[in-house]
Amino acid sequence: MSIRKRKGSDVWHVDIRKPGGGRIRQTAGTTDKQEAQEFHDKLKHEAWRVSKLGEKPTRMFEEAALRYLREQAGMADYGSKHRHIKHFQNVFRGRDLNSITRDEILTALPVKSSQRGVDTDLKPATRNRYLSTIRALFNDASNEWEWIDKAPKLGAAKEPDGRIRWITREDARRLLDAINDDWMREVAAFGFATGLRQGNIIGLEWSQVDLQARRAWIHLDQAKARKAIGVPLNAEAVAAVRRQLGKHPTHVFTRAGEAMPYWETKDWNAACKRAGIERFRFHDVRHTWASWHVQGGTPLNRLMELGGWASYEMVLRYAHLAPDHLRPHADVVLMGSRTEGVPRLVAVK
């Protein structure tokens, strides 16, 4: 029988022999026999067109979502991609992948984020991350899996150009003193000393640290740029790690003896407020570390290696903080003596 119920289930299932060989066995997703028969006939018709006319089989969005997440498993940003796909699946579940348009995808982008019952507007950068994930899914479906003929064209939203947020060493010391929780203070201190991203710090394991050689490393699959990072540890970083010895068998930084599943943003913001520091995210600790390096004379190409950035353009954001190498060129437009109160420009040879 082509449609049947399995033992102990009220849902109908289909079993179809394809014209070119092989079978299609799957749930019809309904307890209504007529609906199940219509679903069966639709699948059988599509299988005939695929075999005889060379058409691509219909693929549902949830099929693409499942395959994409399987192929992304183990990537450093898998958690974010899973969250993005879950959002789009709530919108496009049951839709033929080929029928989803560019405008529908853009309309489906989230505009609000809810954390602990508080709704906030999503920034363009966050919306672009959702867009990047769904763009990658459709590009894979078109170019890699050959499930669809053409992927929708999805450009990125314009993000405002913002200043690099960094604080002075005095501010940083005041902030560390204002943090009440030891675990958070240790993570922040290590961040100021190494410039590592938050996720890499709270996920750091003892197998990634060599205190004798004063170094740590971030594996390829943990790095945002998909490039392993070697991390030299200065005296403050080594001291922060040594203070964690014996607290946990695998993870370096822990909270109450347990590995940290997430960062307490609310407590972090409260500490910043006590320290009198405004608009300072934990990621700005990384910006601060990079700014201190540039101001201290670290060449940009070395900073790129230290920070594990994928492109030189990312490091150029900090170049303006140390324009010392441009000082000789500034003298080219020195003004000479005044004649009748009008400054005269002279070139300095």
UniProtKB/TrEMBL annotation:
GO MF, one example: DNA binding
Keyword terms: DNA integration, DNA recombination, DNA-binding
Classification via SUPFAM superfamilies: DNA breaking-rejoining enzymes
Domain Tyr recombinase: 162-331
A GO BP annotation: DNA recombination
Core-binding (CB) domain sequence ranges: 59-142
Domain of life (superkingdom): Bacteria
Homology family: Belongs to the 'phage' integrase family.
UniProt name for this protein: Tyrosine recombinase XerC
Naturally occurring in which organism (per UniProt): Paraburkholderia caffeinitolerans
